[in-house]
Amino acid sequence: MKSLSDFYFIMPEFSSTNGNFVNFILDHLFTVAIAVASGGALLVMSLAPRGRQATPTQATQMLNRGKSTAVVDVRSPEEFAAGHLRDAKHIPLADLANRLKELDKAKVKTVIVVDQSGNRAAKAASQLKAAGFDDIYTLEGGIAAWTAAGLPLIK
Question: What predicted TM-score, i.e. pTM, was given to this entire model?
Answer without folding.
Answer: 0.68
